[in-house]
Amino acid sequence: MPKQPVLTPQADDFPRWYQDVVAKAELAENGPPRGSMVIRPYAYAMWELMQADLDRRIKATGAQNVYFPALIPQSYIAREAAHVEGFSHEFWTVTHGGGEELAEPMILRPTSETVFGEYMAKWVQSYRDLPLLLNQWANIFRWELRPRLFLRTTEFLWQEGHTVHATQDDAAQYARRILHSVYADFMEEVLAIPVLRGRKTAAERFAGADNTMTCEAMMRDGKALQMGTSHELGQNFARVFDIKYLSDAGTQELCWTTSWGVTTRMLGGLVMCHGDDAGLRLPPAVAPHQVVVLLVKDEDGAGDTARKLHDALLAAGVRSRLDDRVDTSFGRRAVDWELKGVPVRLEVGPRELAEGNVGLLRRDSGEKTSVPVDGAVTAVAAAIDAAQRDLLDTARAWRDERTTEVATLEDAAEAAKDGFAKLPLSALGPDGEARLNESAITVRCVQRADGTVPDGEDEPDLVAFVARSY
Q1: Which end of the chain is more exposed for a tag (fewer CB within 10 A), N or C?
Q2: Virtual torsion, Cα 363, 340, 185, 467, nearest 10 deg
Q3: Where are the beta strands (DSSP E) in 324-441?
Q4: Domain match, 182 and 310 both
Q5: Is residue 74 in a domain?
Q6: pTM (2 decimals)?
Q7: What is the pLDDT of residues 85-122, one digit of tens each?
């Protein structure tokens, strides 16, 4: 009888494969409230590594961390009409507290522009207070009709930045800095996920924003995943919340604001961008264990060698895990670490050790080599660097091979069945966008011909990327 695969093959059923990986790699489980999730230690360790790197990048732009309550008075949100219209169908509303009906319903934080606006208006008085650059790490609550772990859940983790500026140009430049030097660079350098950087169309824009810019990635099934967004809010929220400053000329001026955020959705992106039929393939930068030292048999000094290598790797700054559970079969342990996507396995057994070697296996490529014991730490470091680089190159090649340049809506709809379609924005228009939406195809972003982010949709020779998405 043929052996059953650990995971559903991607080619057979990609959504089922995704669910299998999330469950069997022990990343997350469904929580008690409908659509919520419990993030397990292995995935939360990845999130902590992401959070630390992003926090460093955000602070490098001058932003400071704050924290606001999760409960927002309904009157705050109702003050910005476009905003409430865009989010009202996702609200969780709290009407009782301490057994008593509240005088005013509270909205569990779906996003925080309104409550930030209320306080930023108090904290900004003069041009000397600008720019005001704030960031919050928090949980978010949004009602989801079709929840899926990490990708769309009724509660998730994120960071949200909110800033106030004296001029439109300063706000626009800062929002672009976040998009490029924080989000896109992090996604490519750390997550090894190549992203398209572009502008959203008016139909896809964040509720209440003048401009939304996005990072869009392709998953292994050809669908798009929005990885992060940065918004120019113009003076919309400043006008509603009376965010003004006294200029150096002594005049009262209305401020310009931005907001921007990324979420635990990036964990789902890691799974779907890099994973294969054997499980996760983690970029070393966010792998809880960059290498696992796997003891094959505790014979002829193999156990002592494995422990010494593990200690040497830790001393070299590598996140190493020692697996010396020889009471469990080697094969079962190897499959488990492969499923969890540990970038490098260092296999220590008496047979190879008799020749002065250990086995080194890269998860991303499947390449296995024998390396001398005294050169193992150096070899692991080189393998880690190569895996990080090659995962990005592989994902970029995958995306490029499945991006088709087309000239018509009909061809775009056909190409979007298996990947991205790239077509002139002039061939699309609002009517064409609506027609594609009827087939569950959306405009993921708009770019200039050279791949840069346009300042507006009225620039000549713009191109649009359209795809099915999560």
Answers
A1: N
A2: 100
A3: 344-348, 357-362, 368-372, 403-405, 420-424
A4: no
A5: yes
A6: 0.95
A7: 777 788 999 999 999 999 999 999 999 999 999 999 99
